[in-house]
Amino acid sequence: MNVQSVSSYAFFDDEPADTRAAIMQATYRALCEHGYAGLTIQRIGDEFPKSKSLLYHHYDGKDALLVEFLSFMLRRFEATIPDREYEDARDQLTAIFDHTLPRDPAPERAQFRAAMVELRAQATTNRAYRTHFTRNDRFFRERFAAVVRRGIEEGVFREVDPDRVAAMVVATIHGAMQEEATTNGAESAHVREELRAYVRSQLLAENVTPETIG
Amino acid sequence: MNVQSVSSYAFFDDEPADTRAAIMQATYRALCEHGYAGLTIQRIGDEFPKSKSLLYHHYDGKDALLVEFLSFMLRRFEATIPDREYEDARDQLTAIFDHTLPRDPAPERAQFRAAMVELRAQATTNRAYRTHFTRNDRFFRERFAAVVRRGIEEGVFREVDPDRVAAMVVATIHGAMQEEATTNGAESAHVREELRAYVRSQLLAENVTPETIG
DNA sequence: TGGAACTGAATGAACGTTCAATCAGTGAGT
DNA sequence: ACTCACTGATTGAACGTTCATTCAGTTCCA
Questions:
Q1: Comparing C-alpha atoms, which of B177, B192, B160, B151 is closest to residue B77?
Q2: For B3-58, CATH number?
Q3: What are the angstrom distances between the C-alpha of A166 and each of A99, A171, A202, B188?
Q4: Is the CB of A187 inside 8 Å of chain B's CB atoms?
Q5: Confidence (pLDDT) at A209
């Protein structure tokens, strides 16, 4: 609730549009501060200007609130993945890497990813969560595979299997995110470099000069 | 507690050596059945022939018990990673892949990995957990990098950066494990295949026939 | 006989949830 | 213009349950 923590939530609109949006914001804050294990109705209420009983007027209960919160988070995640706004497939691919494995991530990004890792772990047990993450992973892979297909059409990439490549790269990105969120190590730099080496040797067509890749 | 669930815990010795081992076994069962969020002292006590108050005689409290349990799990994990018992680096590498991303994993393996994903997520919040996973990841990467170094010495692999390769491959394996534990998808087959393609094109020296790789 | 292993019952705190009661606003009927 | 009925938002005080933990007492064994 101090100034520093508020600024690190800049990822959210400072003034939420309505009460339900404010509840989502409060839930996010409580999750970041106390972790999923410490995410209680009380704590959500504390991060929220109105009373905690109001939560039950807007949601059927804690489970329903959290499932809605998960949808909310995944929508944010999907909205931020770079789409077709780039000149060619190589640029878009670079943009996706930079976005998901940034060189020096902003604290708010790191916090968001930590929250996602915590939420995802619940999917091992919670069926609704699992359904959402299945759908979200498919979306991410499909977006990535589309870039690869585009690259092949443009003659920039070789004729690889886009789905297979997407499956591996997405797994690698998720693995690096998980590692960043759950260890003190800083291996994501290594992962990023080796992922680029993989792209150069495996994806890039031979007539394209590798040096032009960032 | 039925026959089927008991057999799926075959990964543990059926008769634990002492009471503390029995407590670890009970904790594992409770974690698998109820998830980390539902892992209570009561539930651990239920999976355990003696009384739940006995847990406090052997451990200082729930936190201490769970930290010890995490050590216990990570020791198991480290013990099962293939070591130098193979003829050459390629065989050992294949063994590590087969072990961490098996074609059709035994249910007990899948359950173990799901438990690991849940435990790891706690490391975002819990400092002791984070320390353990940092150490465990370093161990896994170092073991993998050692194989790569061995392969380079043997002339089977190119002169790549072993640490960089290890960082990426380990991230990919963790990502695939996480995905398997938290979604309904079955993308690990794709990941496995593409990981092998990466090994062929990036790691394998050019005079080695790729077909001999499983 | 003394200490370690073990137990059942109890405790207070924290949990999710409920509920009667207010409050602000809106539209209808007169 | 006035009020009545109704609605959704909001609150504070409760509720019963479950949680981790304690402890006095018992059994086991060296």
A1: B177
A2: 1.10.10
A3: 16, 8, 13, 12
A4: yes
A5: 55
